[in-house]
Specification:
mainly alpha; 0% strand; 97% helix
Length: 60
């Protein structure tokens, strides 16, 4: 009977470790997606600024 409980305990602990790792990976993924979104926005702003400065230089 102890063997069954030991097996169940080990399986539950392993499952908990997997869930904790999954949560960490999901948090990291969310953080990286946010970073990527911010970088794309920054790139878009730089592109707009470059176009604006090129148009200003052509007008002069």
């Amino acid at each position: 009977m102890i063997g069954i409980w030991a097996t169940i305990t080990v399986l539950l602990l392993g499952f908990n470790v997997l869930v904790i790792e999954l949560v960490k990976v999901k948090r990291q993924q969310r953080y990286l997606e946010t970073q990527q979104y911010d970088l794309w926005n920054q790139l878009g702003r730089y592109e707009k600024e470059l176009k604006r400065s090129k148009e200003t230089n052509k007008a002069e």
